[in-house]
Amino acid sequence: MKIPEKSTPEDVLWHRLESYRCGDLDWRSGRAFGYVYDAGQRAAQVAKQAYVEFLAENALDPTTFPSVARLENEVVAMVACHLEAGPDVVGNFTSGGTESIMLAVKAARDCLRARRPEIREPEMVLPVTAHAAFHKAGHYLDVKPIVVRVDETSFAADVAAVRQAITPNTIMLVGSAPSYAHGVVDPIAELGALARERELWLHVDACIGGFLLLYFRRLGASVPDFDLRVPGVSSLSVDLHKYAYAAKGASVILYASRELRRHQIFSCARWTGYSVVNTTVQSTKSAGPIAGA
Ligand SMILES: Cc1ncc(COP(=O)(O)O)c(C=O)c1O
Q1: What is the whole-number distance in angstroms between the Cα of residue 242 and the centre of ligand 1?
Q2: For the segment 36-59, what is each residue's pLDDT rounded down to a tens digit?
Q3: Is the pTM of this model over 0.85?
Q4: Is 279 exposed, middle or buried (0-12, 13-18, 19+ CB in 10 A)?
Q5: Domains of the chain with CATH codes
Q6: Which ligand 1 atom minimizes the distance to the CA of 248?
């Protein structure tokens, strides 16, 4: 298909765009599980307007656009506050659950690379219910997924199976809160204890539940501990474009400490040999914003 030589009249363009949607799922009638999180027209209108207001600004350079850095800091701080995280917790805004998970796997890999350089072929233990994003991250980052069974009745992670799967190459354990396909919260406290015992990174995937679960608890539901207050949890992902009803793509990755988040940061200096004298540049993913501070 060629780029049109002549411009398209606006009304034709809008009509064409609308016509492209005729085969899509009718999510407005409530027929979508996942994909679209519908908070109703009023909230959608506000999200749309805010999105359009910042269409041009670029998070690449927060010294040029301090407004965007401020937004990131405020959003991360609000998410941390919602999850009642302690004062050491820091984080970043990302484009979605998959990016948050990729960054967590990258941070875990580089952290364990520094702590245990003898590990040449790192592995992460995944309950079979863990999201596909971990497999994608493993593929990109050369961390081998070791998939283990879950409890046959509850579909929750089987901690004994996770323990059995740990080898001298293991760097990371994963739990979901809850898992995408079954909506089951894994026993995060037990996984945290195991991670501490074996000195491993534990990531909690709360992409879908990070916002909801605490509201459920406030409504009286019994929700097991799943967040960064659980000893042994190193990082946690929580999506804003799911049950926080933000426009896509919006997610937050939180770390238990600045020291752990350090391993998420990509620095060209590390790979090119340039030495960085002043690392106070406030870039979203390159030099460590004050997000969550
Ligand atoms: C539990 C869980 N983790 C991760 C993801 C990946 O998130 P995203 O689609 O925003 O990349 C999803 C998406 O549905 C999810 O439900």
Answers
A1: 9
A2: 999 899 999 999 999 999 999 999
A3: yes
A4: exposed
A5: 75-255 (3.40.640.10)
A6: 10
